[in-house]
């Protein structure tokens, strides 16, 4: 409390302390939860619930993080010029204040700090790190997390070329942050308001670069589509790029078009979550739309929905794998048409659809399966496209070395407009993909737990006695990627290949108390793949029930 510059969190903490001292057991437990640990700084930076305490996102934690990052950059810097850091922020509660705190701390430490001109999408910050030649970038966002969360995502320039941090940098930065925290009162840290505020030219450069992803063909004329920013920061930048690329403006989901950190119309501002796209679907039905595009609140992810007469409500959301495979196929064709450069490749996370490898091989491209997260995907050698099944796509690696829901939207608009010229739809493109590469289907079984030890017990049981069959399918191979037969460990992931070209990956969630099992099958037709996937899911649930 003594070092907290924020009266709101000081008052919040004083109230909890007073209640705990009066014998309120819930308040005492709350105090323990707030202070029994520190919010960990890792490869995603910081992310957690807003509030007072070392286990919450607040101005004390952000100031310590900024001072620690500044110390790391100064340690790595050469003698010629001070390190340059660019800072962005979205529309979540606290984001603007956290960004200004960071800029003041960076400037006070002797760095050249550049604050983006206003709240903007995460991809604009990732772009700005490279465009401005910065040594690092910070984006204050919690992406699609619940309304009470915020976060602090760190990018590095130089040899990292604007990608998110990976080991050992994350551990080294975390150690510097801990030293700042151990030193005590943050009020003694030097601050300065002599930071720069970028003008709009950096946004204009991002708009111009992203518009080149897919300039509008003639088929875009008259295209009717719906867009939602999910109460986030995507609308302004998206509309500017549409104008630059020549696409018609969408019908907006008006209730969700402007930034609002309360996210009043959605329980969970993630387009993957049930109900999150309900207003977009209503808008699409009312306007006879051809498709829906949705960004998450910081616009680094993209969701797509298309009309489907047999789906409930006449519409269906495409999976992240379906969108990723359409975009990967697009990238592969373009690479082949231009003459495949030596070493050019497609990449996706280990848990994303294996169909991308089939696409890459068919078009003479390399392929890389990486650990989850764009900090790894963006580093794939020769990358021309990368994706992961959680609605993340990297379509323009020369511009942004991170997932980018806006450039992905422009690429989808290009596909839709080209298909429209020939009387086809995005649904037809999915059918054509199946006809060319086979019918792939993906699913997921999640086990949510109250006790994280349950996850360890399940994975230990699988390692101790790998299953020989799952449902009616024999297990062909079982791999423990934490201790592979050859090569370095890849993480706490189990991979099972089954007869009939099916696959299961098992991994603990990195952000939630869940064990996730990713299922992939290949069938002779879409109906066959769906049937095989249903059978595999039933077999997985039987296996989990037997483990108990």
Protein model, in words:
There is one protein chain. The chain has 548 residues and is α/β, with parallel strands linked by helices. The protein folds into three domains: 7-199, Alpha-D-Glucose-1,6-Bisphosphate, subunit A, domain 3 (Alpha-D-Glucose-1,6-Bisphosphate, Chain A, domain 3); 214-437, Alpha-D-Glucose-1,6-Bisphosphate, subunit A, domain 3 (Alpha-D-Glucose-1,6-Bisphosphate, Chain A, domain 3), CATH 3.40.120; 438-547, TATA-Binding Protein, CATH 3.30.310.50. The protein is 38% helix and 20% strand. The chain contains 16 helices and 22 strands. It has helices at 7-21, 25-35, 59-76, 95-108, 122-131, 169-183, 201-211, 234-245, 278-286, 320-337, 355-362, 374-377, 405-421, 426-437, 453-464, 526-547, and strands at residues 46-49, 84-89, 112-115, 136-140, 149-156, 163-164, 196-197, 225-228, 251-252, 291-295, 302-307, 315-317, 345-349, 366-370, 383-388, 392-394, 439-448, 469-470, 473-480, 494-498, 502-508, 514-523. Strands 1, 2, 3, 4, 5, 6 and 7 form a seven-stranded mixed beta sheet that branches. The chain has a six-stranded antiparallel beta sheet with strand order 17-22-21-20-19-18. A five-stranded mixed beta sheet has the order 9-8-10-11-12. Helix 1 (7-21) crosses helix 2, helix 3 crosses helix 6 and helix 10 (320-337) crosses helix 13. The chain is globular. 49% of the residues are buried. The model has no long low-confidence stretch (mean pLDDT 95). InterPro entries: A-D-PHexomutase_a/b/a-I (IPR005844), A-D-PHexomutase_a/b/a-I/II/III (IPR016055), A-D-PHexomutase_a/b/a-II (IPR005845), A-D-PHexomutase_a/b/a-III (IPR005846), A-D-PHexomutase_C (IPR005843), A-D-PHexomutase_C_sf (IPR036900), A-D-PHexomutase_CS (IPR016066). Residues 39-180, 205-305, 320-432 form the Alpha-D-phosphohexomutase alpha/beta/alpha domain. Keywords: Isomerase, Magnesium, Metal-binding, Phosphoprotein. GO terms for molecular function: isomerase activity.
